[in-house]
What does this fold into?
Amino acid sequence: MSYMTINNRRVAFTDEKNVLSVIRKSGIDLPTFCYHSELSTYGACRMCVVEDDRGRVFASCSETPRDGMVIYTNTPRLQHHRKMILELLLASHCRDCTTCRENGVCVLQKLARQLGINYVRFENTKPQLPIDETSDCIVLDSNKCILCGDCVRTCEEIQGIGVLDFAFRGSKMQVTPAFNRRMAETDCVGCGQCRSVCPTGAITIKYNVSPVWREVADPNTRVVVQIAPAVRVAIGDKFGIPKGENSLGKLVAALRRMGFDEIYDTNFGADLTVMEESKELLERLESGQNLPLFTSCCPGWVKFCENRFPELRGHISTCRSPQQMFGALLKEEARMNEADKRRTVVVSIMPCTAKKAEILRPEHMTEGEQDVDYVLTTTEVTRMIQETGIDLAVIEPEALDMPFGISSGAGAIFGVTGGVTEAVLRRLMNSSNVEVLEEISYTGVRGVDGLKEATVLVGEREVKIAVVNGLKTAGELMERIKTGEAHYDFVEVMACKRGCITGGGQPVPIGPRTKKARLEGLYKIDNMAQIKLSNENPIIQNLYQGLLKGKEHKLLHNE
Amino acid sequence: MERIRNAQVLDRVREEAKEAIKNSRCRILICAGTGCLAGGSGEIYQRMCELVKDNPDVEVEFAPEVAHGPVEVKKSGCHGFCEMGPLMRIEPQGILYTKVQPEDCEAIFQRTIVKGDIIRHLLYKQDGLEYQKQDEIPFYKKQTRLVLKNCGHIDAEHINEYISTGGYSALEKVLFTMKPEEVVQEIMDSNLRGRGGGGFTTGYKWSQVARQKETARYVVCNGDEGDPGAFMDRSIMEGDPHKMIEGMMIAAYAVGAQEGYIYVRAEYPLAISRLRTAIAQAEECGLLGDNIMDSGFSFRLHINRGAGAFVCGEGSALTASIEGNRGMPRVKPPRTVEQGLFGKPTVLNNVETFANVPMIITEGAQWYKSIGPEKSPGTKAFALTGSVKNTGLIEVPMGTTLREVIYDIGGGIKDDGEFKAVQIGGPSGGCLVTPHLDISLDFDSLKKMGAMIGSGGLVVMDTNTCMVEVARFFMNFTQNESCGKCVPCREGTKRMLEILERIVAGNGTLEDLDILDELAQTITETALCGLGKSAALPVMSTLKLFRDEYVEHVVDKKCVSHTCTAFRKFIISPERCKGCSKCARNCPVGAISGKIKEPFTIDTEKCIKCGACESACAFGAIHIEG
It folds into this structure.
């Protein structure tokens, strides 16, 4: 154990990678814009400067802790520097906070208040740049960018895509796709992770709130909602509900009050996916063709695979994602029900920005109509609830609607990495015996590592499984699969680290504690679920006998 | 070209090369440095070549004893005396002709080469004296040219010429008589300090690389000389590229590297082409590549062209640029000696530093330390520019005073004006003024004065210079060249520039001066890289030394040197004006009016201060007020 002195207090440290971590551990939340523990140290914002006993000023994010160090974090000199840096940032930043999407969430705004910036002595002389709204998932407004590079490093280091980078230099520097392309012309998969780390309103979610309000208000429209698993453990964030707590019942109650006609659970769609995907896996294991089977629930991953590894496209499961299966089913049901003259609109509430692009894919249209009409992210729904004045913290929970209001615990864990695999394994083992379930959970599919591997016996056959989260890791694995270096039968990929709980549409900030709470929240839902196996969901069984009969392929699969 | 298989062959090649030069009846060295080339030395070279070709059997009067050899016309590197270019040196006498024009060639050939006459109007003249020989000219006489010794004296495009001057003997010495650690020790003992600006001890840097666990290592030469007005490194690369290459090879041997990169700015096409030629020739004769001179040591050298970013002179930005990434400095640690190019331990020194290495090896550390101050020994090349009579490239021992440089070598202030200040170290440096004229030019003394030697740019300014404008100029440069990564440098320099622009436009306030101070402090203490940290130095130093001038600009709305256009007020002196109306006819905005044969007047509201009237007036009746 080593010690350093921070503001005259002795602080112990062990293997912290920089002085900043030691300072934060000691209870001082030194401000930063560009430091993220999961990304490389960039050292550009200079907000975390500290002073040592010899009067040297340095950035604590990029200094290795040494035994006996004596540092100060709040001397008049440092106060001056921090305020000056913030003033400089604010001077080149639009200050229309009241009309900004990130009002109340913006880190720049928060620090300006925290450090007491009362005036900005410089005019904003930066030329206004056009806002890039070409992406279906996110919006890029360079005018609000403070060039911390968090998005650049996230896209490159976590997702391995590198759509965004810096262009130009000095005060003309910008974050932009290469060659001044628009976002829609790039390899962006829409995961929205750049938006999650952006400290300002420079990268925001593409909002679809207004058209949904119009649909809700239209008496001739039947607005049906489906709620994705990871939404329920994050929707409470902005209402003071403890992090990771399941707020599904409260959300249902709120949506009903807001005027949505029928409210269902995407976990039900997930149950359908488990049925189809396990069937497909068995078929492929039998035929030995197109192995490994890649999961298809995550649209960010599907797009990534198509962009980067088109030769491996055939490995992607033909199953639609839970959202799309459910959407197709809901629309089919509406078409069958001739008595109801209203137009059915399917809205899904998702933790994910890439889902906004998924609904627009041509294979997700039936008879010229989208199977899912709108995707709202958790963040957008939070705003809608806030707009109505409903306090989610105090509203009484209500139950989902029928006939699709029952789902299994297997569906709930789709929202974390390894969840899809675990659900499929349950189906393949076909046992709700506690020991079997526990055995599956211990195969190695759970956990937050980028790549997890497991081997399970399905019947006589050893099935080799890889579970990946984060597209950079996925890309590396694909390279190994392509060269024949790695062999698997089943590969689950989630574009976002830890799965949908950290999706690009989830409320921010998402710190380490929030991530953990959301993950535990979903496993808790599974623990509490009476039905653990998708095939034991009684509605699913009925459906295969009824509405789905003979239409499995049409409604649940892509060509 | 003969393959130099071992040390014996190298010695023989050297003797032969020396002999060949001795045997030439006459060598005509035409400066092909960038300055002289721009002055037309390329054409002069062509003309001289043709003349020699057309007269193959010409008798050379002054060297009958070696009359059997050829007359050689060579393109040399920069001679340094750029003010007097294009330059031509004629050997063996050592005659230097200055400001040579293509039409002089015929006369030079017929009279000087053939007859041995001196053409007096081409000689350099100073204080009523004429100088025939280059070495006698005060500009050269007061210098100690060690690193630049060969520049202007050898043909930079032929390796044999370098070998003839003792080139590659230092490499031979280390390869066959010294262990790598002995080489590091020798450089360490010599106290050689990096010439790129920081003044870090070179030997210590090498020793740090040598002791890394990782065995793949690189030697990188920083030839990204970006300071405005600096061209020391360019001259070495253009005039004596092998010296620097030899230095790199010695470094590589010392630290166990097998691969090296030279990072040169793309704005130096001639340097790039000479380096390419040098590398190709060294490879061809086996002095670069595998198993050099059968010693078991291998070294490959690559050239990397920079794309015009000043910041790429910073170590980590430079290595990032070679790697193909955006040239931006990164946080340290890890330092370049631990994880530099491609994440491997890297020796990164600048051109002049490497060019110092061969002579330290040949002559020894003790000899080297005897030149200049012990802690900061050796010589330093300076690019002497601005309001000084003899601009050009000079080399003096460290510890020489500014007075010696400006008055003895530089010949004093242009047009016999009055010295005001010297800007040293380029956009990262500070100003020195009259009381500093006698301080010693070395790393430590300058640091104490709040200035730095930098890479060696010396811009001399006379009393006609506005120091606020100087600060604005350098801030404009720094702002344009900031990489944009860290906030203080990106945003802070922008705001400092805006304020300085405001001040020179006559719109500054006293509060602006305080904000400049505040910004300068934050930038200096919190910027990420060395360039950012020193970005505010020109402003800080002028603000400290010439605060009165700033105050005059913001309070009195006056620029005493009449540099800042905004403060100029043109007036017509009624006593001198003859009423000819020439000024009125030349005024582009119709601001001047009057009756013929009566004094004219200028409407200052309309006047755009272009000065067209002043230059048009035949009677000197128009001048700037104050």
